[in-house]
Amino acid sequence: MSDKNRKAMGRGLDAILGSPETDITSKDISGNYVVGAVAEIDINLIETNPFQPRTEFDETALNELAASIKEQGVIQPVTVRKLGYNKYQLISGERRLRASKLAGLSKIPVFIRVANDEQMLELALIENIHRENLNAIEVAISYQRLIAECNMTQEEVSEKVGKSRSAVANFLRLLKLPPEVQIAIRDGHITMGHARALINIEDKEQQLKLLQKIIEDELSVRETEEMADKAKEAGKDKKEKEKKQTNFLPENFKSKIKTLSQTLNTKVKVNRSLTGKGSLVIDFKDEAEFDRIMELFNRK
Which domain range does residue 56 map to? Predict the structure, then answer.
């Protein structure tokens, strides 16, 4: 640790917050001197978090919180990072910050941290995940951002958010569902249980049909799972039928394929549907054999 940081730590929290010399942003060393410490700072010195995952704030709920803050004050401090002398950036607690401004507060209680941009995003996402009213799609997107933007594995995400790895994986699977299903989850038309049943259906058309039925008939999760199992079996039967149709070869085709294979001295495969449409595949092991086969065609 540098002499400069030792000196700042020895002077206490007030000295750190009030000193123009204390412009430490490259490394998170806040745990050394501000763990559990709360300061009150000018609310206008706090800039918003550019990494805030949450973009919508319920106006009615915000006004209710502002009224509560007027009456009781801010119960839970917001978290900020110190960018420099008298300059702070919000890490988490934007709803409380907005409500405090509506309530007319000039100062707000804060936890002070020093964090780089990646830490800012990580902290904001993790704080966002722990909100009680977060829907499953918002949680899944936050998990995905931790993996993609903070270079975490699923195991690391599970440790950070206090969930099992399988739970994290289940949330991430929701992002593979069609947009219509994701919107239904987001808007509360179906639950996580319904969504997990829909994931097991490979055919998108079948997924959307069952989604509509869930909403219209108010199906339970158990009923949805039963219907999803039936749809899954129907999908398997459909694939098997299509496979048989694709490989339908009349007897005269089989003899011609055999003749062509002998002429080219390589394996020949033909796929043909009941409508007559198909494809011809000629195997070759290397460039030399490809040239040999092309030479045979050029002679014809």
Answer: 3-115
